[in-house]
Structure formats: structure tokens, C-alpha cells
Amino acid sequence: YQRRVRGAAGGSMAPKRKSRHQFPGFGETDAFVAYRKKHSLLPEQRIFIVSGGYRSLKRELRAMGWVENIDPTSGVFHLKWTLRRADVDDPPHDQLRDWQLLNHFQGGAELGNKSLLTQHLLATTVSELHVDSFYPRAYLPKIPGQLAAFLDDFCVSVARGKLQSPEPGQLELARQVLERSGRGLSPLWSSHEWEVLFDKKHPHRLPK
């Protein structure tokens, strides 16, 4: 069924369909219009910029009918995908439209960099947030106390592995270390105990 409207001359005509770009939120700039005209692009064709490699991404976008803009500094794109964070700053973010997509965002390093993310999680003051329940154990030696915490954790992990040890001295020592850990005692181990836990097949030495 297609609704028809009567024209001024008494005839009938189909209502003109609006392009998606004519709806609020999808209005394209004059630069987009000029680019489409220059490259003979259809209104529904999406435009992308990819820099830094990503050949498979380019191939998949082209297969879906997207068109590549080879100018990495151009503001004419629906999707811009770059290797470096700095490459998405041109054009400035405040000149982008809501429907333009980037694979980087301001402050993204706080989530994408493990050291920064760990530092934020360690500094959280939310009592209900148990970081160890969802985040792998991680330590930052540059923060006071973190190196000692890592060595304690490492020693406890080794002690758990020694519970199946055929060496009586290692087995008993492993039990002692785990008991201290369970009771929250400190220190968990001495230099001599460290050497005993690590047998001659694995000659670890206590870090200085």
C-alpha cells in the first residue's frame, strides 16, 4: 500500500521520501555534501577514515558499502579509526557531530592502560567494591608497600603449590606460611624460609 496525494493539477503523486540525512541528528555539513558530489556518492553511503594499518577493518567496511576517505585530517567521515590517540584530535572534538564515531576518547588511557587502571582501583574508597572479585591481582612497585605486597602474594602462591611437595621441610614450611597468611600475620616469611621454599631446581633469590 502506498499513500498518494493529489497534486495541484488534479493528478496524483507519491509523497517524496526523506533521506535519513534530512532527519534531525543526521544533518551533514557542506563539506560532506561537497565530498559526496565530488566522488559521486549516494546519500546512504557511509564514509570512513582508517589510519595505522587495519587492512582487515578496511576490507570489511568496503564489503558493507562504506567508502574510504584517504585524507586523515578530514572531518568528512562517519567512522574514524586510528592507531594513535593523537590522530583523532583533527578535527577538534567540539567540531564533531553526535553521529560521528571515533575509536578513541578523551581519558581513554585511564581505562586502557593497566598501570593507570590499577592505580585508580587501588585508590578507590567505595567500601562495597571488592576489586579482587573481578580484577586480576596486580601490583605497582612504584607505590609504597606494593612491592612487599607482591612478594607476600608470590610467596603464598608458591606455598600453596608446595602442599603436594614430597620434601617434608618444604611441606611444613608451606603450611606455616599459609597459616600466617590466613591469620593476617606479618612478616609471612624470612630470608631462610624463602630459600627453602624455592628448591635447587628453581634457584630464586630473595630480591634486595
Explained architecture:
The protein has 208 residues and is α/β, with parallel strands linked by helices. Helices cover 34% and strands 8% of the residues. The chain is built from seven helices and six strands, in the order E-E-H-E-H-E-E-E-H-H-H-H-H. It has helices at 30-39, 55-63, 109-112, 114-122, 146-161, 168-183, 191-197, and strands at 5-6, 12-13, 47-51, 67-68, 79-82, 101-102. The strands form two sheets. Strands 4-3-5-6 form a four-stranded parallel β-sheet, covered by helices on one side. Strands 1-2 form a two-stranded antiparallel sheet. A hairpin with a 5-residue loop joins strand 1 (5-6) and strand 2. Helix 5 (146-161) crosses helix 6 (168-183). The chain is elongated, with a radius of gyration of 31 Å.
List keywords for this structure.
single chain, 208 residues, alpha/beta, four-stranded parallel sheet, two-stranded antiparallel sheet, 7 helices, disordered N terminus
Strand content: 5-15%
Largest sheet data: 4 strands, parallel
Shape: elongated
Order of helices and strands: EEHEHEEEHHHHH
Mean pLDDT metric: 78
Sheet/helix structural class: alpha/beta
Measure the end-to-end span. Answer: 83 Å
Helix percent band: 25-40%
Radius of gyration (Å): 31 Å
Q: Supply the number of helical segments.
A: 7
How are the strands of the biggest sheet laid out side by side? 4-3-5-6
**How many strand elements?**
6
Low-confidence stretches: 1-25, 201-206
Describe this structure in a few short sentences.
The protein is built from 7 helices and 6 strands, in the order ββαβαβββααααα.
